[in-house]
Write a structure and sequence with these properties.
The complex is a heterodimer of chains A (about 80) and B (about 250). Chain A has about 80 residues and is an alpha+beta fold. Chain A is about 40% helix and about 30% strand. With about 250 residues, chain B is of the alpha/beta class. The chains are: A alpha+beta (about 80), B alpha/beta (about 250).
Chain lengths: ~80, ~250
């Protein structure tokens, strides 16, 4: 159950990319979860709204694609 | 079928349904007009890079490193104790151990009692070690003259899989009483292994454990994975284990 920690790392990365792009808010995050990444998509989805509260991703949609392999990759952000 | 997206609503196992509260309630978000920002960055890459740096640091010091993984009670610490005893007191003093558990320093005390230099990482609620925790734990140890570092992870067949901790090789343990189906149930950890160790072999006559099935299912996710059958208590299989541990070194 390390999804909350990974979720915080996800938000940290997303906010840094948001700032680098000079954008204001994150509307959606596209995440690819490897089947052997040791990450439960359901747990990630459950903790995401809590972790995102108070960040510039508050209320954003977390879109999770299950892929093969063992990695956890933030593919894309939808920002405004 | 849902008229908006065409998904099979409320079909068990349909992945979209399980993922977010919004998907579960099957409300579709309003169309958004954000711009897309490509990221393509791994969230596990940071730990992998730290693990690689730690491994390089150990290698530069002439220290080999072995990760011990398995469920709680698989016999990781008992195997380490038996290994230290066979190496002998003088050699054991050149073995360093990082012990990971949620709480207590029982395991560090056990291996320290056999002569190893040991440090305990109490992870609290954290379910696995990572390279950062191990690197800082090593600050507590005098690594002068150490030949090998053992990293005994928190007993867990799931979470440690994608988090290398600086080990050069991983030994994943399954004990006879746990059952031969573990590699089928927890493929990710076995896919990360360099050796499958079936422990508590002295109990094999008393339990329904098919060694061939266990080894074959581990090889299904990690082709060519070697396996050993041993008992830290009776000593069977320990010589082959020590050969693997030494890996051609003296």
């Amino acid at each position: 159950m390390h999804e909350a920690k990974l979720c915080l790392a996800l938000l940290d990365l997303a906010e840094r990319r948001l700032e680098a792009a000079g954008a204001d808010r994150i509307l959606a995050l596209d995440l690819a979860v490897g089947e052997w990444a040791g990450v439960a998509p359901e747990a990630l989805a459950a903790v995401f709204p809590l972790c995102a509260a108070g960040t510039r991703a508050a209320g954003a949609e977390l879109r999770i694609a299950r892929v093969s392999g063992r990695d956890l990759v933030l593919r894309e952000l939808e920002v405004t | 079928m849902c008229g908006t997206c065409g998904c099979e609503a409320h079909v068990p196992g349909a992945p979209e349904l399980a993922l977010s509260p919004r998907a579960r309630s099957h409300e579709h978000p309003p169309e958004r007009s954000g711009r897309r920002l490509a990221v393509e960055a791994s969230l596990l890459a940071h730990n992998r890079a730290q693990a690689e740096r730690l491994r390089a640091r150990l290698a530069a010091l002439g220290i080999d490193s072995i990760g011990l993984l398995g469920g709680p009670g698989a016999g990781k610490t008992a195997l380490l104790e038996a290994t230290l005893e066979r190496l002998g007191r003088a050699a054991a003093a050149r073995e360093a151990v990082v012990e990971g558990d949620c709480a207590t320093d029982h395991d560090a005390r056990r291996v320290a009692a056999r002569g190893a230099r040991a440090v305990q990482v109490a992870t609290g609620a954290l379910c696995h070690l990572d390279a950062h925790l191990v690197a800082h734990a090593l600050d507590e140890l005098d690594l002068g003259g150490v030949e090998r570092l053992w990293i005994e992870n928190v007993g867990n067949l799931v979470c440690p899989a994608p988090f290398p901790c600086g080990e050069r090789r991983r030994a994943v343990l399954v004990s006879a009483p746990e059952g031969d189906e573990k590699p089928e149930k927890y493929p990710a950890l076995f896919a990360s292994a360099d050796l499958l160790v079936i422990t508590k072999a002295d109990l094999l006559p008393h339990v329904d454990f098919d060694v061939a099935r266990c080894a074959a299912s581990a090889r299904a996710v990690r082709p060519g994975l070697p396996h050993l059958v041993l008992s830290a208590r009776s000593g069977i299989g320990m010589e082959a284990w020590l050969d693997w541990v030494r890996d051609g070194r003296a």
